[in-house]
Automatic annotation (TrEMBL):
Its EC number is 2.3.2.26. GO terms for biological process: protein polyubiquitination; ubiquitin-dependent protein catabolic process. PANTHER family: UBIQUITIN-PROTEIN LIGASE E3C. The active site is at 1071 (glycyl thioester intermediate). This is HECT-type E3 ubiquitin transferase. SUPFAM superfamilies: Hect, E3 ligase catalytic domain. Keywords: Coiled coil, Transferase, Ubl conjugation pathway. It catalyses: S-ubiquitinyl-[E2 ubiquitin-conjugating enzyme]-L-cysteine + [acceptor protein]-L-lysine = [E2 ubiquitin-conjugating enzyme]-L-cysteine + N(6)-ubiquitinyl-[acceptor protein]-L-lysine. PROSITE patterns: HECT, IQ. Signal peptide: none annotated. The lineage of its organism: Eukaryota, Fungi, Fungi incertae sedis, Mucoromycota, Mortierellomycotina.
Length: 1103
């Protein structure tokens, strides 16, 4: 019960027992009670502060609301007063100035963006109202009042404009009427005609002052936020155009002021980064904006003082900025001064280097005018061992409208205008070809190199068009008129004509890097990796990469007759030879040092030249030049071999170990797949191919030696590569179960009729797939249905193989056709692409794979373009003469045609004969409606040659290669080009060397000095080449000598004594390379019997 005392009573223990109290516990209890009391006091104080704050806010809100109510009345009164004014007098000016100041000051007292949006808009409308007969805007009235009022008004506007600017950007729901009120006020303050004065300088200063005020208040980013909320479909909305014109006005007002740099940077990073800026404006506004935009000043500013501002832009702003600069600049380039055109070039180059490559490449894949990529590695490219991995495409998609603006970057007219307007050097230089020409300045060469490299890497699907346009550009052909001091040629007005490849090759050969490369070649010393990482060589590497890209494109459409013609080849042959040496050694450097170089890093710290890209392009040029030299020699002997010494014994040993290690991993990956492959499962084949690609993508990093052999194999001698190939096969044979040594249990059996070797072989052996590597037992059935005599120790299979090849590659069979040089290539007609025929091509691929695996030479000569396709490479125009010389001559005529294309009536279609009917096929989408012109003729020539050489036989070659790769690992084949592969398949196209044959024969029951042997060699010496080939075929089953001579035969070719019966014919066992020769006592008798035997072709029954 409450007794009036506020103190609690003491607790008294009446029990009489004294309690033991823990002092520490008592202390802790007291501390806890004190803490609770302090917390309670703090809570009460906080509550008091909150209540005070709330009361203050509530009172302030009421006060603000009262001011709002007053302000609403005042604004109505002011609006009424303005409407009743007929003429401005000094008293009226003073009164209006005071009222205007009052409503602005009051607004600051209560303005809250969320609550007072309409009041702010209303204020803008009131300040923009015209007054009196002079129609002077209210906002300008105070500037006609007393100096004190002018000063006060300027201060108020200085406070009002930042508030208005921020609200303009932050508010998300502007109506057109509301935006119009704000923009009208901005226009009023920034236009000189707003301020009536007798002194033009005063009005100009006022307008500039408020332009600077708006700029300082952050008008550009806030205008950008406002513009970003307007849909591109609402291009008729006036506020969009007015906002842009305001931005341009503010930018121009800042010229020649201290704040110009910041204003220009803000304008570029905000206004010019609005996506699809030209598409958002109606034609009238676009025309006005374009005419007022100080693009030249912007370009000069960006190129000189704001490079850092460009590089620091967020990635999402770079692409729109590039598109907008192209949109507003591409039509002005031809009229730009040299200084501005150089600035334009620099800005474009910088922005192209900053654009995310994956997004552009992804979008450009869907462009209407896509070209097929023209790499020298086609469907093999994804399997290219150690090739630079491609970045996954970005999921971000660019608007197709923006891609149209970006496409201007590689537009031929645009590029020609840029190149034609670049400032020329005023000095005379001597080119690599010995001609004195006026060349570009060093700075221009560097900029153009960066620009063009950026274009071809950023727009890979348009690389053909870009490079084709550059191929025939001549500097000086559109040279501007020059004045003042200069060269004699310039002064006389004579138009110079210098090929772009010549100028850039000259620029490269004048670099320190080039000199160091030559010195290394002359001294036979290896190149240093530091050459790639040295920042001082970055520009030189860019030049080399561009020269390689452009010359690769030139070679694509250059026939051999042009290549060897000094007048038609823009680079003289001697310069080509030197260039070939350079790219050969650079390619080797980059492949050999894959482990110590990061392929994704930039060369020498350059902006965008990746080490991997440089390696790919110099490798491509090296391969193209080597292909030319292989077809018709122009380089010195052993030119393609490494200039640096290489321990080949150690190289072979190491590369074989690398291959064995990789193959063991491959066997583990594919162990489950091999058995299923025999069932012809397409799914497993695809999965196997994917697994192989994943492995080989890292091959060069795991084994630089294999990277060299698979990409630039010709730097190693052919004989050494054949030796390595044989070692690979033997290693594979040892790893494969049941294949090492001789095994009596064959993996496959086939009874083959001599009249249907191909059909029987296909039926019995095709299902074996990779198991064809094992021993195959063949039994021939003669025309009477009887098994032929002979035990197959390997020789019968060799005869089966040669017979099958003879039948399958007969042009009457329909799978293959002959060129004019009697070289074989797949039938290109539609029926050859049916599933059954493709299975036949696949089987033939396996058969040739078996021949390579066993070292059996076949009697068939293939067209180079077919073998090139089988190796996964792309054929070019220079391969066309072997297929269709008439078409080749027509295309070369078209290439050199200067005009009158309309009379040719050519379009982008090709006619094929299918089953007696002519079928027209389009080379590109809508090709029927696209006529061939002077501008696109190079593209037409490439596409036509590409169709004939690659597209028509693509499926057949893929099937053939699929079967071939079942037995021969593709990377083993990639050690050879098409000419070398032909030698691998069919032997060397050389005569039978009697000396080589004699030195590599062993005798059984004969001595070298026996009369029979003397007679034998005497008869062979008299034989013509055809009879010698028949003799070799009789003993070994192949008419050509082995690749590396008869010493390569295993077992050695042997002549055995077959007894004293001179009536018997000489016989052979081809499986053992054995000639069974009776001991003839008469030379004439031996000659008759030997010639009869080798001409009989009676099979094993002859034995």
């Amino acid at each position: 019960m409450f007794d009036g005392s506020f103190k609690s009573k003491r607790t008294i223990n009446l029990g009489g027992n004294k309690q033991q109290v823990d002092k520490q516990k008592l202390l802790r209890q007291a501390q806890e009670e004190r803490r609770i009391r302090e917390a309670e006091r703090a809570r009460l104080k906080a509550a008091e502060r909150i209540q005070a704050w709330y009361r203050g806010r509530t009172v302030a809100a009421r006060v603000r609301q009262d001011i709002r109510d007053t302000w609403d009345k005042d604004i109505i009164t002011l609006q009424h007063n303005i409407g009743s004014i007929a003429q401005l007098t000094s008293n009226i000016i003073a009164q209006l100035s005071k009222e205007a100041e009052s409503i602005v000051q009051k607004l600051f007292l209560f303005f809250r963006p969320r609550l007072d949006h309409q009041r702010l808009v209303q204020l803008c409308s009131i300040l923009s109202l015209p007054t009196g007969s002079t129609k002077t805007r209210l906002v300008a009235i105070p500037f006609q009042s007393t100096p004190d009022q002018q000063s006060s008004w300027r201060q108020l506007l200085g406070r009002l404009l930042p508030v208005l600017v921020q609200h303009f950007g932050n508010h998300s729901n502007w109506s057109e009427q509301e935006a119009d009120a704000v923009l009208t006020l901005f226009d009023t303050l920034t236009l000189p005609e707003t301020y009536p004065s007798t002194q033009d300088t005063q009005t100009l200063l006022l307008s500039k002052h408020y332009c600077q005020t708006l700029s300082s208040a952050g008008i550009f980013p806030q205008l950008t936020r406002f513009l970003g909320r307007i849909s591109i479909d609402n291009k008729g909305q006036p506020s969009f155009g007015r906002a842009l014109l305001l931005a341009v006005r503010i930018l121009r007002a800042s010229e020649q002021t201290q704040g110009h740099t910041e204003s220009a940077d803000q304008f570029v990073s905000n206004i010019l980064t609005v996506p699809l800026l030209p598409n958002r404006m109606p034609i009238e506004t676009l025309s006005t904006f374009t005419s007022r935009l100080p693009l030249d000043a912007i370009l000069l500013h960006l190129s000189k003082s704001s490079h850092a501002a460009l590089t620091s832009l967020p990635q999402y702003k770079v692409t729109p900025l590039l598109a907008n600069i192209l949109a507003f600049g591409y039509q002005r380039v031809a009229r730009m001064s040299s200084t501005v055109s150089n600035a334009y070039l620099h800005v474009l180059t910088t922005l192209l280097g900053l654009v995310p490559r994956d997004s552009i490449e992804s979008a450009s894949k869907h462009a209407v005018d896509d070209d097929e990529d023209m790499d020298d590695i086609e469907w093999r490219s994804e399997d290219l061992p150690g090739s630079s991995p491609k970045s996954p495409l970005s999921t971000a998609k660019l608007d197709p409208k923006m891609m149209k603006w970006l496409a201007l970057a590689y537009d031929s007219n645009h590029l020609n205008d840029i190149l034609g307007s670049i400032e020329k050097s005023t000095t005379v230089a001597t080119t690599a070809t010995g001609n004195t020409q006026d060349v570009l300045s060093a700075g221009s060469v560097v900029e153009i190199t960066h620009l063009l490299l950026n274009l071809i890497t950023l727009f890979p699907s348009h690389k053909i068009n870009i490079l084709s346009n550059l191929m025939y550009f001549k500097f000086g052909s559109k040279a501007k008129a020059t004045s003042g001091a200069g060269t004699a040629q310039a002064t006389s007005g004579k138009a110079l004509s210098v090929s772009i490849i010549t100028i850039f090759l000259d620029a490269f050969t004048s670099t320190t890097l080039y000199q160091q490369l030559l010195q290394s070649m002359q001294r036979d010393t290896p190149l240093s990796v530091q050459l790639v990482t040295d920042q001082g060589h970055a520009k030189a590497w860019n030049l080399l990469a561009f020269v390689a890209e452009l010359y690769c494109q030139i070679l694509v459409t250059m026939g051999d007759d042009e290549f060897y013609d000094e007048k038609k080849n823009p680079i003289g042959l001697q310069s080509v030879i030197t260039l070939a040496s350079v790219v050969r050694d650079v390619a080797f450097l980059l492949w050999w040092n894959d482990n110590s170089l990061n392929m994704e890093s930039n060369v020498g710290g350059s902006m965008n030249l990746k080490v991997g890209y440089l390696r790919d392009i110099v490798t491509k040029l090296t391969r193209q030049l080597h292909a030319r030299d292989s077809r018709k020699v122009f380089c010195p002997k052993d030119h393609w071999l490494l200039s640096m010494p290489l321990d080949m014994t150690a190289f072979k040993r190491a590369v074989i170990q690398d291959e064995e290690s990789l193959s063991r991993d491959q066997d583990i990956d594919e162990h489950d797949g091999d058995d299923i492959i025999m069932t012809d499962s397409e799914h497993v084949r695809v999965q196997r191919s994917i697994n192989r690609r994943q492995r080989t993508s890292q091959l060069a990093r795991l084994s630089p030696r294999l990277g060299v052999l698979n990409n630039i194999p010709f730097v190693i001698r052919f004989e050494d590569r054949v030796s390595i190939f044989r070692a690979f096969v033997e290693s594979d044979r040892q790893r494969s179960a049941g294949m090492a040594g001789y095994h009596p249990n064959a993996v496959g059996h086939a009874q083959v009729h001599r009249g249907s070797v191909f059909e029987d072989g296909y039926e019995h052996l095709n299902h074996l797939g990779p198991k064809l590597k094992g021993r195959i037992a063949i039994s021939f059935i003669d025309q009477y249905g009887m098994p032929e005599a002979g035990i197959d120790g390997g020789g019968v299979f060799k005869e089966f193989l040669t017979s099958l090849v003879l039948q399958a590659f007969d042009t009457n069979y329909g799978l293959f056709m002959n060129t004019s040089d009697q070289l074989l290539y797949p039938n290109p007609h539609q029926f050859a692409q049916e599933r059954t025929q493709l299975k036949h091509y696949e089987f033939l691929g396996r058969i040739l794979g078996k021949a390579l695996y066993e070292g059996i030479l076949i009697d068939a000569a293939f067209a180079g373009f077919f073998l090139s396709k089988c190796l996964g490479q792309v054929n070019y125009l220079d391969d066309l003469p072997s297929l269709d010389p008439v078409l080749y001559r027509g295309l070369m005529f078209l290439k050199n045609q200067a005009e009158d294309f309309q009379a040719l009536s050519l379009n982008f279609t090709v006619d094929d004969e299918e089953l007696g009917q002519t079928v027209s096929k389009e080379l590109i989408p809508n090709g029927t409606n696209i006529m061939v012109t002077r501008e696109n003729r190079i593209r037409y020539i490439y596409l036509m040659a590409h169709y004939r050489l690659n597209t028509q036989i693509d499926r057949q070659c893929r099937a053939f290669f699929q079967g071939l790769s079942d037995l021969i690992d593709p990377k083993w084949l990639w050690m050879f080009n098409q000419q070398e592969l032909q030698v691998m398949l069919g032997g060397a196209q050389t005569g039978i060397s009697l000396k080589d044959l004699q030195q590599n024969v062993v005798y059984s029951n004969f001595e070298r000095t026996d009369p029979t042997i003397e007679y034998f060699w005497s008869v062979v010496e008299e034989m013509n080449e055809e009879d010698r080939r028949l003799l070799v075929k009789f003993v070994t089953s192949c008419a050509r000598p082995p690749l590396l001579g008869f010493a390569e035969l295993n077992p050695k070719l042997c002549i055995r004594n077959a007894g004293q019966e001179e009536d018997r014919l000489p016989t052979s066992s081809t499986c053992m390379n054995l000639l069974k020769l009776p001991a003839f006592k008469s030379r004439q008798r031996l000659k008759e019997k030997l010639l009869y035997a080798i001409h009989s072709e009676a099979g094993f029954n002859l034995s």
